[in-house]
Amino acid sequence: MSNDLYQDIQQFYDASSGLWEQIWGEHMHHGYYGRSGNNKVNRRQAQIDLIEELLAWAGYTESDSSTNPKTIIDVGCGIGGSSLYLAQKFNANVTGITLSPVQANRATERVKNAGFQEQVQFQVANALEMPFPDNQFDLVWSLESGEHMPDKTQFLAECYRVLRPGGKLILATWCHRSTHSLAGALTKDEKRHLAEIYRVYCLPHVISLPDYEAIAVKCGFKDLRADDWSNSVAPFWDVVIDSAIKPEAIWGLLQSGWRTIEAALSLSLMSRGYARGLVKFGILTATKSNIG
Question: N or C: which end of the chain has fewer CB within 10 A?
């Protein structure tokens, strides 16, 4: 990860995380609105539902606690929303990593207030060079952080490395549509649309879900499953757009600086991207082989 990109991502989240928490709460990710996107639930419940749906889809069920993870790495942890939720749900030890010192400090404060400081820790770290030994975690949880990785292969290789044999990866990430279908390669207009998303949200690039699958297989992952949940999460952006025009949000934006204001003004980029079938919400789960 280049120093410029590292700094851009850090500064973006240093500036915007406080506003996000103030207006939208501790979960900095999409919400789940049912398989077809028609469920009428409030935004915070939808975000919790996304966590639960991902866990169930990946095979963690209430009826079988024997496979519950005891050690979890939350890659791109934000202010610790998922980290704390997973620690509470599984009574697990969770480590969250982020590029933003502001996020890491706020996440640490939040888990201390919740009384989970012995089980949940946070640190500033690069997901492409995780500061952990091999074979350490039962679960690698990456909820909307893959899009920030300039080298997707190195990212998934690091996820594989830190997983213990038999451990599981759950990845949910922004993608673009498949280029292996009848639609063919991305058009110039689609590339321009994506370039604006990259610029505003400090992303190097995104890839398609089939490309993620191919990389995961190359890295050695087994029992791979993948799915497109775009319809399930697309309503989230309209909800966020509606909330962004409230007085308290506008005042917070004015205090957060131009980068955060520009990101808020550009929320429709994502909404329109989903509507035209260009932006996709890809999910993937896989396990590390017990052999070797």
Answer: C
